[in-house]
Design goal:
It contains three helices and three strands; from the N terminus they run αβααββ. With 68 residues, the protein is an alpha+beta fold. It has a three-stranded antiparallel sheet with strand order 1-3-2. α1 packs across α3. The protein starts with a helix and ends with a strand.
Length: 68
């Protein structure tokens, strides 16, 4: 599959909405909440990091992502 900036931006919006509703989510919980594939989530998280909209922290063996 070829990803466009429009697709990644839309996916970033879905993740932002999910994090707004439920802060501090793992990638696994974002997969369930947004119904996006892991690869789509990782690309969208990169978009949100670039825009300085989110931060991440380790929580045991996983990473939790939150809005700034």
């Amino acid at each position: 599959m070829r990803y466009s900036s429009e697709k990644i931006g839309n996916d970033a919006g879905k993740i932002w909405e999910s994090l707004n509703a439920s802060p501090k989510q793992t990638i696994k919980s974002l997969e369930q909440a947004t119904e996006l594939k892991r690869e789509e989530i990782l690309l969208a998280l990169g978009w949100l990091f670039k825009e300085d909209k989110i931060f991440a922290e380790t929580a045991g063996s996983s990473v939790k992502v939150s809005l700034k």
